[in-house]
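Quick one: structure tokens for this chain, please?
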Amino acid sequence: MLLCKEVVKSLYLCAAMRRLLILTLVILGCSWSAHSQVHRWYNRYAKVVRANALVANYADSLRLLKKRLDAVRSANERAAAESGYVGGDGRYYPLFAPLTFYHDAAAEYLSVGADDDVVAEVNRSLMRVYLNRPDLVQNSQNRLQQEASTGTEVSAPVKQEVNLVTHVSDSIQTPPVVTPVDVVVKKPNFWTFKGDYYLQLLQNYVSDNWYKGGESNYSMLASVLMEANYNNKQKVKWENKLEMKVGFLTSEADSVHTMKTSEDLLRLTSKLGLQASKKWYYTLQMLAVTQFVRGYKSNDPAVYSDFLSPLTIDLSLGMDYTVETMNKHLKGTIHFAPLAYKFHYVDRLALAPTFGLKEGHHTLHDLGSLVTADLTWTFTDNIKWQTRFYAFTTYKGVTMEWENTFSFKFNKYISTNLFAYPRFDDTVSPDAHHGYWQFKEFASIGFTYSF
């Protein structure tokens, strides 16, 4: 029994000791945890204190640097004010430009007894950065000098042109005074006028004992060509041309006439056209031809022609083709008329049979077709060829004329002309030598004028 009590007492004592041990371990664990937490808090506080001290020291150094720079800047400003210099100080540039290693800064830092000015203070500031934060250095003085050597030296200052804009006040402006203006509207002038005149004289003297024979003579030729043309630059054009030529000559062999005509022409051409295409026109043409004075032959008192003896009027309906080729050297028109009416009139009844009319009749009417061409070929400024072709045909006969005038201008007022005029007419009686062909030719020199 006693043994049992001892055993129970021993077990109770072991349980008490176990509880005490567990309690001790718990207390020790809590103490260690608190100690660790306190240690961590202390380390954090120490770091914050050290950081604050570093920041405070850096801020103090910046304030000190600022005071020194301000003092130097004030001294420089006073010196600049005394010397009259106005402008910025470029010596502060290294502090604000991308960080560059300058040899002057190192030399200034290692020198003894350096002056306490702006350059020295800037160099000392740069050296502190070089020693403490070399990782911030981006460039070097040698590299800058190499880059600068490849540049172009500017010998003259560069001046910028600045456009100054004057400020305009917002004040209310009075409207400008409007002055009445008379507007004159002129109608376009679709008319063009031009003319060509020449007067030519020829004198030929042959003595009575000239070994080849011949006779003396004098001749004169006057020509007037006037044109009045209308063209509205759209569809309609109206062309009018008046030709007048008179030529006289004297001959010692002619004992009947003191003077005879060598050329006598009065001709009016009028065309009214409606444009069909670029170079083609539907055209109504009127052509009237007569002469001025009586026509004679040598040593014959008979009259062979006269004013209105004959008179021919052609009315034709067809198409005109405008010629403009050879770099505009050859110009003119060609008229094709499948339907044409020709009116003949002879004032002197005695001359009616000579021009194909019945004896005792003044008039004759013919229907047929007509082709005319008026062309001018300018070879040079001084040489020109003018040609006119006329062909009228009926069931009874054909009348063709081909006039050619070659003009040679020596200057603005002096020229010579060569005129060749073949003609075919089978409506009259044929000649024993030439048949139905007729021919006229002359050459002359004299005064000319054109506008």
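The chain is about 25% helix and 40% strand.
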